[in-house]
């Protein structure tokens, strides 16, 4: 807040008066080759402005820690259940009992290989572990077993495409000139152990430690500094989260701590007078740590970018030079704060881990893991859109709900209306989603429990088909769905309709026509309104029929009969 | 068989002994302890050692120094027989000085699970015994694959090693003389000026005796031996400084108490705990190790030492007529061995002198230590090469000193995995001196 008056950052909510129409600006990359990969021939970056209106750009790299979804820890057979009482989920190795030795869990290697392949990286045929030394009570061995010298994965990329920017719901959505896409290069993927969890604020003057987490496998995924704004970091994080969840390599929930992200931020301005900040390589970099949601990463990164620009602009006068350091983020005040300066940075004294032999993989193993990879989110989105003619928004909505697209595709295989996915989609996204619960534990209020809904693809297909072939009215169809979902009726639509005596009155029914004629004669006032040109009154008549037939008539047919009768 | 277990193995029978683990009772038995018990052995007690196994003379034990059992030397050192561990010579040197058998199998033959780690890439379970046959009995019992130690050789690897040895066609006691067809190497680099005349005498004597038993004696060269001691004293402390990092007093052992709120930062509490509780030799080695792992010195010390370690191993591989399966596995195609001109085993001294004297007073010892803390390291000069190369090595009694009657010993080293041959030849050497 303090900095707001000193510089202005353009955002769609508060455009500064002196800049009228620039949100992000397309920069031909040949002018700034060092900024990004050669493959990004042309892309756009978010532009930030200091108080003098000078343009600034941000350079952002991420270090992501994803807990590996494996039933056992990385180096002990201990289970990884996360909901156990503190300090009950521990093997001797996890707390450094003398004489215990690490035994590598091969499942964690498989998950890492899946991840590297999903990120188009190179799985290393030979990789090894190292010890990273530092003393901290949550580090039971006095070192972390990690992969410093020879990580298991090198290179790779994750492409942010137009759809990803479009689906992003945070700040920055639908901004004009939003980037059309960006290739974010992956530097490396490495395996390492998680630490125990420290609690500083439960008992005064005491640090409580829960060793349940100690030794769980982590994948550290390091990106090149290819991201250009907090929002883009958020888009990248959502995307890698979805990817890790799809390949079942990690639960990847930031709120639960199974996905963590450190953000490296620096800024530069090609037109700056300050030689240090007119190019990206020499700019001072700060690392943001300990944010527990994607939203917080976005906000903290944006805040830090703004702080950098402000300090560079006003720093010397205020004796506030930008220094390389590690910073935290306070959500309440929307401020970042110093955790430790670079001078306090530790020497980790990396040493090859003598207790764990090197990991040797061969092409056959890698091919097998590749063959087992599920369809990745980008491929799936594209396929759903081309195969079923889905709209982007519908495909994304369904992909966001676990088990939903699988259900949709099964319905599509059973239904007689295969040519028209549009007959099926609303039944899922409007009707079935209405029966899902909100996950109150998640701040993003996602809906959960699609897979718990008691409906089979065949049942939904029967509803859609019977509706299409006029065996059901839409009112009846909704009631059928209710019987299935709420009362767990196992029947198909026709059976449920029969059980409840719901039949559609046929289009040429004499009774229906008589009912309409009777209504017109009983309501001469309304009838005359129609003749005077009011179409709205038609709704009144149709409603009356629907009421009398308890929804068994089809409104379109009733409407046609009325129009015919009233126009005479 | 009654067995004593050195106090750095985890057992259910009593606490592991180091100051920092005074109140610590291991929750499990070491794999080798379980194997001895399952094999019918009875663990009768635990034996003394230098704190965290750092030293060969129990000078740095919290229980005080162990003395020789022989009447000859009240003031000489002694370590007790049984299951032990050998990182740079801690089994072979005490055996040599006490005139008993001390066997260090190939690295990975016996599980290290439950052994307090000193230098993981060097720590080897070893055996002290009266006879070679006793050592073999214990070795056969404890040399098994173990799921709890990834560096312990797998069943497949052991099968492959056995196949390799069968393939070599070598057979002991097949000819008219027991050692017909066996070539023994005498490495010239071990003929150092610090060697006692007595030891040179029994070395020559034993070589002649082996020749009479049919063995062919060949001079060999292990040119990188001269670096072994320096390499060892860089690598072992480096690994030790890492392995001992877990003793911070948080989860077991004594935690230093501080009332000064200024010193409540976690690293200060760890530093205080460790300063108060580690002995002087342990602290010295942690300092050395920490230094050689520090950014800036790592490349010049640790990495160089690692490279030299590979050269030392290669020296041995070049001398033997059996390929080193471990080297072959790690770098296929790079196996160097001397199929026709190579030797089956190497004979060398275990120590440069007979048992050293215990300093007259602890303070004079401390003075000597402070003056030259590395003087004692010279004792390890004969034993560390086999440790660095992970080779099977055994110290065998070879008579008594003509000047003071103290036991003298020789060391026999074989190719990686050739443990049985080393024991076979050692039995013949032991016989020479048992039946004069």
Automatic annotation (TrEMBL), chain A:
Residues 406-566 form the Asn/Gln amidotransferase domain. This is Glutamyl-tRNA(Gln) amidotransferase subunit B, mitochondrial. One of its GO terms (molecular function) is glutaminyl-tRNA synthase (glutamine-hydrolyzing) activity. SUPFAM superfamilies: GatB/YqeY motif, Glutamine synthetase/guanido kinase. It comes from Mycoemilia scoparia. Keywords: ATP-binding, Ligase, Mitochondrion, Nucleotide-binding, Protein biosynthesis. It catalyses: L-glutamyl-tRNA(Gln) + L-glutamine + ATP + H2O = L-glutaminyl-tRNA(Gln) + L-glutamate + ADP + phosphate + H(+); L-aspartyl-tRNA(Asn) + L-glutamine + ATP + H2O = L-asparaginyl-tRNA(Asn) + L-glutamate + ADP + phosphate + 2 H(+). Its main location: mitochondrion.
TrEMBL record, chain B:
Residues 84-423 form the Amidase domain. It catalyses: L-glutamyl-tRNA(Gln) + L-glutamine + ATP + H2O = L-glutaminyl-tRNA(Gln) + L-glutamate + ADP + phosphate + H(+). It is found in: Mitochondrion. Keywords: ATP-binding, Ligase, Mitochondrion, Nucleotide-binding, Protein biosynthesis. GO terms for molecular function: ATP binding; glutaminyl-tRNA synthase (glutamine-hydrolyzing) activity. GO terms for cellular component: glutamyl-tRNA(Gln) amidotransferase complex; mitochondrion. It comes from the Eukaryota. Its EC number is 6.3.5.7. Its main location: mitochondrion. The keyword Ligase applies. The active site is at 6 (charge relay system), 84 (charge relay system), 90 (acyl-ester intermediate). It holds the Pfam family Amidase. GO terms for biological process: glutaminyl-tRNAGln biosynthesis via transamidation; mitochondrial translation. Transmembrane segments: none annotated. Subunit of the heterotrimeric GatCAB amidotransferase (AdT) complex, composed of A, B and C subunits. Allows the formation of correctly charged Gln-tRNA(Gln) through the transamidation of misacylated Glu-tRNA(Gln) in the mitochondria. The reaction takes place in the presence of glutamine and ATP through an activated gamma-phospho-Glu-tRNA(Gln). Belongs to the amidase family. GatA subfamily. This is Glutamyl-tRNA(Gln) amidotransferase subunit A, mitochondrial. The gene is HER2.
């Amino acid at each position: 807040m303090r900095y707001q008056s000193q510089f202005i950052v353009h955002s769609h909510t508060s455009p500064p008066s002196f800049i009228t129409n620039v949100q992000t600006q397309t920069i031909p990359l040949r002018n700034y080759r060092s900024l990004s990969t050669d493959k990004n021939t042309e892309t756009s970056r978010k532009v930030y402005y200091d108080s003098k209106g000078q343009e600034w750009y941000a350079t952002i790299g991420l270090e992501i820690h994803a807990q590996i979804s494996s039933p056992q820890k990385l180096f002990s057979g201990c289970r990884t259940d996360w909901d156990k009482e503190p300090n009950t989920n521990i093997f001797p190795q996890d707390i450094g009992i003398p004489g215990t030795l690490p035994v590598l869990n091969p499942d964690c290697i498989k998950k890492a290989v899946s991840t590297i392949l999903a990120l188009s990286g190179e799985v290393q045929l030979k990789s090894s572990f190292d010890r990273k030394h530092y003393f901290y009570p949550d580090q039971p061995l006095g070192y972390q077993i990690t992969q410093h010298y020879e990580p298991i994965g090198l290179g790779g990329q994750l492409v942010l495409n137009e759809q990803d920017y479009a689906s992003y719901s945070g700040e920055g959505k639908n901004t004009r000139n939003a980037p059309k896409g960006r290739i974010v290069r992956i530097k490396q993927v490495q395996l390492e152990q998680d630490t125990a969890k420290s609690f500083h604020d439960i008992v005064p003057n005491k640090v409580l430690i829960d060793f349940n987490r100690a030794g769980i496998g982590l994948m550290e995924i390091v990106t090149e500094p290819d991201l250009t704004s907090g929002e883009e970091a958020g888009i990248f994080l959502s995307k890698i989260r979805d990817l890790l969840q799809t390949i079942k390599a990690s639960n990847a929930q930031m709120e639960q701590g199974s996905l963590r992200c450190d953000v490296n931020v620096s800024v530069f301005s090609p037109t700056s007078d300050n030689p240090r900040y007119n190019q990206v390589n020499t700019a001072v970099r700060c690392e943001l740590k300990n944010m527990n949601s994607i939203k917080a990463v976005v906000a903290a990164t944006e805040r830090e970018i703004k702080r950098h620009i402000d300090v560079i602009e006003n720093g010397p006068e205020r004796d506030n030079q930008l220094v390389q350091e590690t910073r935290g983020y306070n959500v309440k005040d929307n401020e970042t704060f110093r955790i430790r300066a670079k001078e306090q940075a530790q020497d980790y004294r990396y040493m090859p881990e003598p207790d764990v032999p090197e990991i040797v993989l061969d092409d056959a193993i890698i091919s097998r893991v590749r063959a087992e990879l599920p369809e990745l989110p980008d491929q799936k989105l594209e396929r759903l859109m081309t195969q079923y003619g889905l709209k982007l928004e519908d495909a994304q909505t369904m992909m966001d709900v676990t088990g939903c697209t699988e259900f949709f595709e099964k319905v599509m295989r059973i239904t007689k209306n295969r040519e028209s996915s549009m007959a099926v989609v609303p039944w899922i996204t409007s009707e079935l989603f209405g029966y899902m619960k909100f996950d109150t534990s998640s701040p993003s209020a996602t809906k959960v429990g699609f897979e718990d809904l008691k409906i089979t693809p065949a049942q939904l297909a029967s509803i859609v088909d019977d509706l299409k072939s006029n065996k059901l009215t839409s009112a009846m169809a909704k009631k059928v769905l209710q019987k299935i979902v709420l009362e767990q009726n196992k029947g198909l639509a026709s059976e449920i309709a029969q059980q409840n005596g719901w039949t559609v009155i046929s289009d040429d029914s004499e009774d229906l026509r008589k009912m309409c004629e009777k209504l017109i004669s009983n309501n001469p006032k309304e009838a005359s309104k129609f003749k005077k040109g009011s179409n709205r009154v038609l709704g009144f008549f149709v409603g009356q029929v629907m009421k009398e037939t308890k929804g068994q008539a089809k409104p379109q047919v009733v409407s046609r009969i009325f129009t015919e009768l009233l126009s005479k | 068989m009654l067995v004593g277990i050195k106090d750095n193995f985890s057992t259910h029978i009593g606490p592991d002994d180091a100051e920092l683990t005074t109140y610590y009772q291991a929750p499990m038995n070491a794999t080798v302890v379980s194997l001895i018990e399952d094999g019918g052995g009875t663990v009768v007690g635990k034996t003394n050692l230098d704190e965290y196994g750092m030293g060969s003379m129990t000078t740095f034990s919290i229980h005080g120094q162990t003395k020789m059992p022989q009447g000859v030397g009240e003031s000489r050192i002694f370590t007790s027989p049984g299951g032990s561990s050998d990182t740079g010579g801690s089994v072979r040197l005490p055996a040599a000085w006490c005139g008993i058998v001390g066997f260090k199998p190939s690295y990975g033959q016996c599980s290290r699970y439950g052994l307090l780690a000193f230098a993981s890439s060097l720590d080897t379970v070893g055996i002290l015994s009266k006879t070679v046959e006793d050592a073999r009995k214990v070795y056969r019992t404890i040399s098994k694959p173990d799921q709890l130690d990834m560096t312990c050789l797998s069943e497949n690897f052991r099968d492959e090693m056995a196949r390799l040895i069968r393939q070599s066609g070598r057979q002991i006691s097949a000819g008219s003389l027991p050692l017909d067809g066996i070539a023994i190497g005498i490495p010239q680099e071990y003929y150092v000026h610090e060697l006692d005349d007595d030891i040179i005498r029994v070395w020559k004597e034993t070589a002649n005796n082996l020749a009479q038993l049919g063995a062919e004696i060949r001079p060999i060269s292990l040119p990188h031996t001269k670096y072994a001691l320096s390499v060892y004293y860089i690598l072992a402390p480096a690994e030790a400084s890492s392995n001992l990092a877990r003793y911070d007093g948080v989860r077991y052992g004594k935690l230093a108490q501080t009332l000064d709120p200024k010193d409540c930062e976690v690293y200060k509490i760890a530093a205080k705990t460790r300063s108060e509780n580690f002995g002087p030799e342990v602290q010295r080695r942690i300092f050395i190790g920490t230094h050689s792992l520090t950014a800036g010195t790592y490349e010049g010390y640790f990495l160089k030492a690692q490279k030299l370690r590979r050269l030392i191993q290669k020296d041995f591989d070049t001398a033997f007529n059996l390929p080193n399966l471990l080297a072959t596995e790690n770098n296929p195609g790079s196996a160097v061995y001397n199929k026709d001109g190579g030797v089956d085993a190497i004979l060398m001294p275990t120590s440069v002198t007979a048992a050293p004297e215990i300093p007259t007073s602890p303070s004079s010892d401390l003075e000597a230590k402070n003056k030259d803390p590395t003087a004692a390291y010279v004792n390890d000069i004969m034993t560390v090469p086999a440790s660095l190369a992970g080779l099977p090595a055994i110290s065998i009694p070879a008579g008594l000193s003509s000047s003071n009657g103290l036991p003298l010993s020789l060391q026999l080293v074989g190719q990686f995995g050739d443990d049985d041959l080393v024991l076979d030849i050692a039995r013949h050497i032991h016989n020479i001196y048992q039946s004069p």
